Amino acid sequence: MEIKSSLDTANKCLSSWAASGEPCSDSFVGVACNEHRKVANISLQGKGLAGKLTPAVAELKCLSGLYLHYNSLQGEIPVEISNLTELTDLYLNFNNLTGAIPPEIGKMASLQVLQLSYNQLTGNMPTQMGSLKNLNFLALESNRLTGQIPSGLGNLRSLKSLHLGSNQLSGQIPYTLANNTSLELLDVKNKKLSGLIPPVRNNSGLCGPGFPVLRAYNSLDSNLDLNLNSFPSGHTGNPNPQSAAFAIVCNETICSETPSKLPKIGLVSGLIATSFRLAVAAAVAFFRHRHQKQKVGDKSDTSNGNQLSSVGPTSLDRCRSVWGPHRRDSFNLEEVESATQHFSEANLLGKSKFCRVYKGVLKDGLIMAIKCIGKTSCKSEEEEFLRGLSLLNSLEHENLVELKGFCRSKARGECFLIYNFAPGGNLSSYLDRDEVVVLDWKTRVSIIHGIAKGWCLF
Fold first, then answer.
1. Residue 260 lies in a domain
2. Protein kinase domain spans which residues (predicted)?
């Protein structure tokens, strides 16, 4: 209970964490356990927590994922957190944390994702970070960090995304980073950096020699500040006036579309088929009927309809795809959280014992239905999951909502599927609720006919 009282000082957000309760009984909000009934995951992002991160969290020796981002946590990062040797994902971004990053963090050998961005952290970047051999995503941007970028980061051969922008870092970009062939995204936007940009000619992940993106800004207005960085030479053309974040396009593919690591996907294909048959065939047929009467995207529309199956992540969570390169099927966990307002109850379209469906609005204005499959159902092997999703994607039928993307968060223990949003409400609301108009016989026959057409695919 010390963790609860420290995180939720007002006792408003974690009321389900009762002293007499059992954390592994599914009654504790945001807590997931492993097969040995030990706490393995705490997911409390966007819960309005305003307390502190207590050293007591280090007592959870089996913890592999700690998600406390998008809260208002204060105070320093406790040194004791380094005792969580099984931790792979640490998300503390978008809080009000202060103080220095504990050097002891270098002992967390299992760490794969370290998200500390958008806080008020000060001091130098610990050189001990160069010992995190399994790290593939490091985000420290928008803090108050000073000093130089540790050269040891270049020795992290698993590192794919490095975000250090909007700090007060100084000195040169380490040449060791240029030799890191796994690096796909590098953000070093800092006004005090100096020296040459190191040549990156041996990194196919960055797609091309050097940083050609820096040469693309040749149309500059008269108000451009050319002193954002102090690189004296090394490239022709104008520097990027806004950022040194490189996500370069080559061969019509994005080398690093989102700051994330590839997911470890898994879900029983039978679950997909079952969810598809029972929820989609009926609900989607009804959506098409309603779609004829309602304008797509009407703000008053609500839907429980895209209850097919679900999209998710591992760590910062890149979603994989079985579709062609021109489809928007890559999403990451932060996009999904932002689209659903951190899975707000206001966006909840419907839920069952095994899943929840949320309405989500992406940054480009696209409205999606996001289905979250719970930790007890989201299991099995990646290959099996991909086979099931590939089969679903190959189906073409007027009564089926289009599947847009998917992935699985191993640490969170949840899977997600993203579908086009179908407005018009859900079928049960028209069958069971007294306040809506009763469907006439002709309409009901039309719905049943649509259900039958969906079943024909199986």
1. no
2. 343-458
